[in-house]
Amino acid sequence: KFNQKVEVYGSDEISNLGRAFNLMTTKLEQVDKQRREFVGNVSHELRTPLSSIKILSETLIHQESTPEKIYKEFLKDIDSEVDRLNKIIDNLLYLVDLEKENIHLDYQITYVNYLIQKIISNLKPLADKKNITLNFDEKVKIQVMLDKFKVQQSLINIIGNAIKYTPENGRVDVELYTQQDSFVIKVKDNGIGIPEDELPFIFDRFYRVDKARARKTGGTGLGLSITQQLIALHQGEVKVESTVNKGSTFYIILPLRSAV
Ligand code: ADP
After folding, report:
1. How large is the angle between the packed helices 68-98 and 223-233, nearest 10 degrees?
2. What stretches of the chain adopt beta strand conformation (E)?
3. Cα-based distances in Å from 20 to 1, 8, 14, 34
């Protein structure tokens, strides 16, 4: 327990020490609260697929003679819940890794235009399935030192979300441009949007605007959290603007200082 505070009245050295102590206590309380919330969230997120697996397997066990077709269907559902569990655990381990101090970035000369082109061509089939137009507007050509893999992952998360949260026949526009001493990768969709009061939370671990929908689309609620950390490691930032039913725009802003 970190709730031992001292009463401080004066302005002498000892009182100042007391104040510093109280401040530290408050900080520790916050960290402790966050830790407990996180463990609670993880347990909840893992329990949901586990409950589904349990119900599905029990039904199979107790059914006398299940037709093969239904049997296979249940097994398929169990299989995808196991995949989900694996995805959550992989993402969690990755996040924990990212939060370690002295994390190593593998800087390489990266031609950003080419990196985005490659990601877009990989995500194209996903967009095609929903007849979504996926466009890339290259305002500039940029070559910088980046951890290619980490920036690629961030972009896959953001562009993947834009496709995921945009209905059929929509569009996703990716734009690359410079702004002062940074370059910006803007990802604009005309999808479902995010309510204004939820915007401040979307980078929180496990936060999803619509849990049921996100689960159906296979989301873990960890993608944006990971993306934000990956970009922060490069001294960059991720910004978002959104209007419900109109669409969302995400900005990945990275320093140009390491331009080569
Ligand atoms: P998920 O795995 O659920 O997609 P993310 O961390 O990537 O998790 O995103 C968190 C939540 O933010 C999503 O569940 C969704 O509600 C919302 N979100 C993210 N990107 C978009 C977008 N382009 N349009 C609308 N909502 C989005």
Report:
1. 30
2. 107-111, 133-138, 143-147, 171-179, 182-189, 237-243, 247-255
3. 18, 10, 10, 21
User: Which ipTM was obtained for this model?
Assistant: 0.98
Strand order in the sheet with 237-243: 133-138, 171-179, 182-189, 247-255, 237-243
SS (H, E, C) 68-80: HHHHHHHHHHHHH
Whether the CB-CB separation of 54 and 186 falls below 8 Å is answered with no
Q: CA torsion 201→221→74→60, rounded to 10°?
A: -70
Distance 244 CA to ligand 1 centre (A): 13
- For the CA of 211, the closest atom of ligand 1 is 14
Q: How far is the CA of 14 from the centre of ligand 1 (A)?
A: 49
Residues in the chain: 260
pLDDT tens digits, 13-35: 888 898 899 899 998 998 888 88
